[in-house]
Specification:
The complex is a heterodimer. By secondary structure, chain A is mainly α. Chain A is built from 30 helices and six strands. Chain A has a two-stranded antiparallel sheet. In chain A, strands 2-3 form a two-stranded antiparallel sheet. In chain A, strands 5-6 form a two-stranded antiparallel sheet. By secondary structure, chain B is an all-alpha fold. Chain B has one domain: Helix Hairpins (Orthogonal Bundle), CATH 1.10.287.3510. Helix content of chain B is about 75%, strand content about 0%. Classes of the chains: A mainly alpha, B mainly alpha.
Chain lengths: ~700, ~110
Amino acid sequence: MLFLDHIWLIPLFPAAGAAIMFFFGRRLQKGTVSTVCVGSVVLAFLMACGAVLQYTNWAPAHEHQPYQKILYTWLGTDTGHLNFQKSDGTAASLQADAGFLLDPLSSIWLLFVTGVGMLIHIYSTGYMAHEGGYYRFFGYLNLFMFSMLTLILANNYVLMFVGWEGVGLCSYLLIGFYFQRKSASDAANKAFIVNRIGDAGFILGMFFIAWMCGSLRFIDVTGFARDHAASLMGNPIIGAATLLLFVGACGKSAQLPLYVWLPDAMEGPTPVSALIHAATMVTAGVYMVARSNALFVLAPKSMLVVAIVGALTAFFAASIGLVQNDIKRVLAYSTVSQLGYMFMALGVGAFAAGVFHVFTHAFFKALLFLGAGSVIHAMSGEQDMRNMGGLSSKIPVTFRTMFVATLAIAGIPGLAGFFSKDEILWQAWRFHPALWAIGFATALMTAFYMFRLVYLTFWSPSRVTSHDVEHHIHESPKSMTVPLVILAFFSLTAGYLDVSESLGGSKQFDKFLAPVFANTAQASEAPSAGEESHRTEDVLMFLSVVGALLGWYVARRAYANAEKGYVEPIAAGAPPVYDVLLNKYYVDEGYDYVFTGRRKLGNVRLGVMGLGEASSWFDSHVIDGAVNGAGRITRFTATFSSWWDKWIIDGIGVNGPAILARMLSYPARLFEVGLVQWYALVMTAGLVGFVFYYVYH
Amino acid sequence: MLHITTLHYLVLGAALFLLGVIGVLTRRNVVIVLMSIELILNAVNLNLVAFSRYWQGLHGPGALHGQVFAIFVITDAAAEAAVGLGILIAFFRNKETVNVDEVNLLKW
């Protein structure tokens, strides 16, 4: 139980690596940086393998319960300050542990995140060897691993959200790694801001869950949902919670309508695109929805929304991918499209199928991105496929591994993508044939754009523009090709973990995941048995194989001999459609009109920013005008009042009598001469006067 | 031998009084003015003593009440002279003059 007991060490290894890079990275040699950062992830990987192995031994003895390790209460205390009232009126306290949870679901994520992450770290030592900011890059990568592992291993929504935000931050930092380039820093901002919208949904969803269940621990929430499944079916609070969680998933996993940041995220270094924007971080939304499966099955309408959004995203992104010329952008739209597949699977209730596709997709999509990085490396930074061609013999290892990945994603039988994608299409068919039709069309387009990529890059005649570049083409170093080969091996074999019954397999992967999706398994297993459905499954499988081969064939016809200045078949057939696809359905422009406020009609800004400006104008002119008007009236009244006080009250009332008194004083003053003898004379005269008066009266 | 009656005293007192008043009203030297005031007071004293004597004639030699008034007035005159001369000295120290017409500050 050594590894299981110390499961909290798994995220701490990369955290330590990131901390060392943060404090000392600038002073370290490149070799030391590689040792520390790659070493920390290797340790995390070994630890993860050990922990999962011990869990598989531990679980059967404990009824396949999740293994939970709580270190301490991180948020909330027993002081009662965070108490609140649940929706049923009883009291609850908000608490979040620094706790770790290992169950089959997190085991799978743990293994492929550390495994693929380790390979990408090794690849990066070769890819980034000539770049500045080497330690910064690896510090960010380690920080990302820490955040992602926190997200995966958290035992409650709050700690998961910490990891969720952490990976968002690292995504921002790594997209903007070449921050001197304006487009890179813009793309980083875009990713961060669009993700904020989703994160707001996640937080609100958490509040709803806490309000409903009184706890945010996965075990408690799942238990609550399963115990009260009958009474909670269709509960509006759970409906709101699941929809809001799905908004969060849409942001992180680039679903409609929040997918716009992912294609722009290709501004980051290619290993970042492989690690964060293809294999691991963007699957966090799938993980979160799968983790909340007990809630989602109680909200059928939310499930329907998830399925429809996933299907539309898959179709929409694949159609854009048909005509993109930047090799990384094709892969970015492919990622969005495959994530749509995963959500479609979750939405139809086939959680295990969705998770399985995440698992296989991590290998072949990481491989495709790393291969694309190797191509770009060989082409001295050129990313436009119109300027490539004929590389298959010059960079054979890259070519072979990428070809394997292409076969895998296109759904050629025997490779990883075939099994996982077919399972999803089959489940979609059982839910509703329309969903299957969308998925099938997407699969067709996937095969087409992937083989288009391969033909334009590796097989068609060389269209390299500069002789220097042509001359400089070389195979990448061992540190880059070895991860490619390992990933290619898994792209070939990962699918055999979950071979369906109709092909004589036993669905090991589904059985491993069964305890996590216990309640949903019962619901979906029942109609699957039977010869009839197996025959349908076989037909659908045959159709998708035909579709994949058809896509390959069309791409071969269009691009096998693409000379310089070749014409896209879509552009030749339907120019308006090509324009719309090339410009990504003008969604970014539409967002500019509606949300970002970059568009103006005359002087009037459009969209919500325009609404903001109009409100601001209303505030400053009408509301403030009323305030100022009231002020002016008061001031006028005060002025008048002051005038009245000064001239009428003070002037006439107070100073008037004083002035009168002064006027009267002038004659009176004449008597006062100041000479004492004058006064004496007056007294004498008065005395004499009185005497005469009395004597002669 | 002419018998001296009360009327004689009164005429003499009136004459002295007039002399005093004229002195107060006309002389500029404050000392002279004060002396004139003494004349007025003594004229009054003479009247009081004269009437007292007349009262004695009517009520016998023990009726001496009027004499007391005169003694009061003499006391009063002494006090008045002391105060007046004190003011005079303070005044002289300031203005180096004793002329009463140069004392005209106390007016509007």
